[in-house]
UniProtKB/TrEMBL annotation:
Residues 101-229 form the MTTase N-terminal domain. Potential regulator of CDK5 activity. This is CDK5RAP1-like protein. One of its GO terms (biological process) is regulation of macromolecule metabolic process. GO terms for molecular function: 4 iron, 4 sulfur cluster binding; metal ion binding; tRNA-2-methylthio-N(6)-dimethylallyladenosine(37) synthase activity. PROSITE patterns: MTTASE_N, MTTASE_RADICAL, RADICAL_SAM. InterPro entries: Elp3/MiaA/NifB-like_rSAM, Methylthiotransferase, Methylthiotransferase_CS, Methylthiotransferase_N, Methylthiotransferase_N_sf, MiaB_methiolase, rSAM, rSAM_horseshoe. One of its GO terms (cellular component) is cytosol. Residues 253-499 form the Radical SAM core domain. Its cofactor is [4Fe-4S] cluster. Keywords: 4Fe-4S, Iron, Iron-sulfur, Metal-binding, S-adenosyl-L-methionine. Belongs to the methylthiotransferase family. MiaB subfamily.
Length: 499
């Protein structure tokens, strides 16, 4: 049988045979080099440079850092790869740098600001600052600001302008004068007044040297030490647990027979017009034992009247470990919240009962409450204790249910009126006061008339009227338009004042 192959097929076979033969020769040369490199000089000339490169690479790996060098503990133990640690001078804090510097407090806003000023004084006195009531001799000027409305901001900006001129005139004689801005109500994670002050003041002018939020007062000595190095310092961080419970406030007026006691901080109500929940933070309460101890000390000093303070004072709830847990959550009838019902801990009625029992001759007040937190148990405690003042502040904000819903107040006009009737039935001699907002977003003349009729029906002993001022970062700022003209707001306020 004759078999014939094409030239192309024969060429392919020959090529494959030659390729395998060549690879086999290289393999044999490599083996002979490993076993007997001295007897194969021709092979060494070809492979030796390649082996040298591999050897050099292995040596580099051995000489370089290994895996242990990348662990922190190994670095700290050997100190071979770490430079000598140096602390920046402006981070070193020593209370001695601020010995006997005189500090002047300028307080704006509500009672909470007054109490915060007393806390600030206590912290600074413990760090060798000396309070002064003379603005001229002060080395440090602290301004506790309020910006709940535009009018409050305008006052503060005007004051800052005055202090800026004072600072310039003092540079020649006493160059150490510092103007600091303690943002007590508006300081937040979401860019409210503290952030705005940092941007507008610290970065664009020389008005102030420091901005501090309501939960950073403990950090003031360190922040003030930073200003000694001609730096501007900021701390506007909020806290979930700061209540300053362990700090005994230094009273601004030691001879006064009345005093403020802060029992809680923050607010969870999230009313659409209000910036406080974003800037004061979430609600947190002081332990009952801490509050009672402070009230007892005030009683021993001869104080005759104590006002319990909080952004939403009657939502107080002590959930510390030394209190009895009660899972019952109570609100006034017909009221609701935007948050989940809170459970456990001692509530405001329990605290009020204990505070009133400290000294039956001491008058007890509280502010500022929310109507939803007036369940029957709170009203009953007020009725039982003669030293608990029968003056209740019940901010309604509006008399129209649609506007109240837009404000996210958690109640209707009817529910509010029913609560008033219930309180007056149990406390016939009660004196009621309230807050009202004129010209909230979308408020019509008819809705405003409902507010006037509410005031006439309730017959408040006192009412506070405010033209609506939209605040950035609030829910109303994001969802609604401030569409009521300023002149209409003022006209409505004047009309209410006539009532």
């Amino acid at each position: 049988m004759n078999v014939s192959f094409s030239p192309r097929f024969l060429n392919n076979i020959y090529f494959k045979h030659s390729w395998y033969k060549h690879r086999l020769q290289l393999y044999r040369l490599f083996c002979s080099h490993k076993t007997c490199s001295n007897h194969s000089p021709d092979t060494s000339n070809v492979l030796e440079p390649e082996l040298d490169r591999k050897t050099k690479f292995k040596h580099k790996l051995l000489e370089g850092p290994n895996l242990k060098d990348f662990f922190k503990d190994e670095h700290l133990a050997s100190q071979e790869h770490l430079p000598e640690e140096e602390v920046a001078p402006y981070l070193r804090f020593s209370p001695k740098t601020n010995i006997k510097r005189k500090v002047y407090l300028d307080v704006y806003g509500c009672q909470m600001n007054v109490n915060d000023a007393e806390i600030v004084l206590a912290i600074l006195k413990n760090n060798d600052f000396e309070p002064t009531k003379d603005l001229i001799e002060a080395d440090v000027i602290l301004i506790l600001t309020c910006a709940i409305r535009d009018s409050a901001e305008e006052k503060i900006w005007g004051r800052l302008g005055f202090l800026k001129g004072l600072k310039r005139t003092r540079k020649k004689d006493r160059p150490s004068l510092k103007i600091e801005c303690l943002v007590s109500i508006f300081a937040g994670l979401l860019g409210c007044m503290a952030e705005r002050l940092k941007t507008k003041v610290l970065e664009t002018s020389d008005m102030v040297d420091l901005v501090a939020g309501p939960d950073s007062y403990r950090d003031l000595p360190r922040l003030l030490s930073l200003t000694d190095t001609d730096q501007r310092s900021v701390n506007v961080l909020l806290s979930l647990d700061e209540t300053y419970a362990d700090i005994s406030p230094v009273r601004l007026n030691e001879n006064s027979i009345s005093a403020y006691v802060s029992i809680m901080r923050g607010c969870d109500n999230m009313c659409t017009y209000c910036i406080v929940p974003f800037t004061r933070g979430r609600e947190r309460s002081r332990p009952v034992s801490s509050i009672l101890r402070e009230v007892e000390q005030l009683s021993e000093k001869g104080v005759k009247e104590v006002t319990l303070l909080g952004q939403n004072v009657n939502s107080y709830r002590d959930i510390s470990t030394d209190t009895k847990i009660d899972n019952v959550t109570t609100l006034a009838k017909g009221f609701k919240t935007v948050y989940k019902p809170k459970k456990g801990g001692l509530r405001f009625a329990d605290l009020l009962n204990r505070v009133a029992a400290v000294n039956p001759e001491m008058r007890i007040r509280f502010t500022s409450p929310h109507p939803k937190d007036f369940p029957d148990e709170v009203v009953e405690v007020i009725r039982q204790h003669s030293n608990v003042c029968k003056n209740l502040h019940m901010p309604a904000q509006s008399g129209n249910s649609v506007v109240l819903e837009r404000m996210r107040r958690g109640y209707t006009r009817e529910a509010y009126l029913e609560l008033v009737r219930s309180i007056r039935l149990k406390l016939p001699d009660v004196a009621l006061s309230s807050d009202f907002i004129c010209g909230f977003c979308g408020e019509t003349d008819e809705e405003f008339e409902d507010t006037l009729s509410l005031m006439e029906e309730v017959r408040y002993n006192q009412a506070y009227l405010f033209a609506y001022s939209m605040r950035e970062r609030t829910t109303a700022h994001r969802r609604f338009k401030d569409d009521v003209p300023p002149d209409v707001k003022q006209r409505r306020c004047l009309k209410r004042n006539k009532i």
